[in-house]
Design brief:
Bound molecules: 2-acetamido-2-deoxy-beta-D-glucopyranose
Largest sheet: 6 strands, mixed
Mean pLDDT: 93
Shape: globular
Length: 368
């Protein structure tokens, strides 16, 4: 009896203190959360999603992937980190978990939906996790987030979150691949592809907006013609093949116009476009003299001209791997090194308006 009384009297001050803390502290979403980061895209942003998709040989699962930073393959197509990894770090967030990783319980810091090979157009590569499937997963995740923290806090997190995209490169690589024997691609086919890609992108961005998303960040298409894999495919000898360059530029111009239009149509819609095209192009051209990449055309890992034959990590193929990836711009035939991704991420995060506009990522994260 005496013992029970003692416990009861001890509990009252604790409860009172707890109640005071609950009522006096600001709303929990302000106090305990940073704006989350939700990521969509292809292999440039895939941090392991593809490994859980059940398609054998589709992900970066063998040496030398991951050798520089993680010291083992992590599903990332690089020797180390990708742009979303650096962005998460700059934003004070942990590395994001890929959505299909079993057992995820926390959706408040962000999630990565990006997957290797992904296209915007669903019919192009049926075995990959295309953008539509990624956005479907996101809508499913919103329900899980609401179960985790309640509707009010979830809605606040969704509106403060940054939605980071790198997508559509594969839609154009696919167009060139299919027409490789009859280049140049006709104007009709070119415009048809661009219009369909932009049309579907519009739909997906609006779906995320309808779920409460407001802050969008886009990496524009890189100079596709400078990729070692593209030069190998087209049997092009030189710095950058002109036709893929033209396609990327046309897409980027149309996409910039779309983002502007969405900003005027959708209240509260804010965005950032990082000019990855120019940034990567300048590094290909002036890699050694200005940017510290001794080799900016041949990939560290692969075979064939420019190491552009995508044999890196492939069992049963002979490929070579460089001994110092930090001197290389390209780790494999289509993906930059950890060192290059770090440089891009710094520009995306805090670069001036000639590189990233109308906001840079730092401003976008801070925006209310
Ligand atoms: C989306 O892409 C499909 C092909 O996958 C196309 O038929 C459709 O017209 C596109 N939608 C828009 C709105 O452009």
């Amino acid at each position: 009896m005496a013992k029970i009384t003692a416990i009861t009297t001890n509990m009252f001050p604790t409860l009172a203190l707890l109640a005071t803390l609950l009522f006096l502290s600001p709303s929990p979403s302000n106090a305990q959360y940073k704006p989350p980061l939700y990521v969509f895209g292809d292999s440039l942003y895939d941090d392991g999603m593809t490994l859980y998709n059940g398609v054998k040989g589709a992900g970066a699962e063998f040496w030398p992937y991951g050798e520089t930073y993680f010291k083992k393959p992590s599903g990332r197509y690089s020797d180390g980190r990708l742009i979303p990894d650096f962005v998460a770090q700059f934003a004070g967030l942990p590395f994001l978990q890929p959505y299909l990783l079993p057992g995820i319980k926390d959706f408040t810091r962000g999630i990565n939906f990006a997957s290797a090979g992904a296209c915007v157009l669903v019919e192009l590569r049926p075995q990959t996790i295309n953008l539509k499937r990624q956005v479907d997963y996101f809508v499913q995740m919103v329900q899980k987030l609401k179960q985790q923290v309640g509707e009010g806090t979830a809605n606040q997190l969704l509106s403060e979150a940054v939605y980071l995209f790198n997508i559509a490169g594969n839609d154009y690589v696919n167009l060139l691949q299919k027409n490789v024997k009859k280049l140049p691609v006709s104007n009709f086919k070119r415009n048809q592809r661009i219009n369909m890609v932009i049309g579907n992108l519009t739909t997906h961005i609006k779906t995320i907006y309808d779920q409460g998303g407001r802050k969008f960040a886009f990496q524009n298409l890189g100079p596709l013609g400078c990729m070692p894999s593209m030069k190998y495919m087209l049997n092009f000898k030189g710095t950058c093949a002109p036709e893929p360059q033209e396609l990327a530029k046309l897409h980027n111009a149309k996409f910039a116009a779309l983002a502007k239009r969405l900003q005027s149509q959708l209240p509260g819609f804010k965005y950032s476009i990082y000019d990855f095209y120019t940034s990567l192009y300048l590094r290909v051209i002036y890699g050694s003299s200005r940017y510290g990449f001794r080799e900016s055309q041949t990939a560290c890992c692969g075979s064939g001209s420019y190491n552009g034959d995508f044999t890196c990590q492939k069992k049963g193929y002979t490929f070579s791997v460089c001994s110092n990836p930090s001197e290389y711009l390209w780790f494999d035939a289509a993906h930059p090194t950890d060192k290059a991704n770090q440089a891009f991420s710094k520009e995306f995060w805090s670069g001036g308006s000639s590189l990233v506009a109308p906001y840079n990522l730092q401003q976008l994260f801070a925006a209310k």
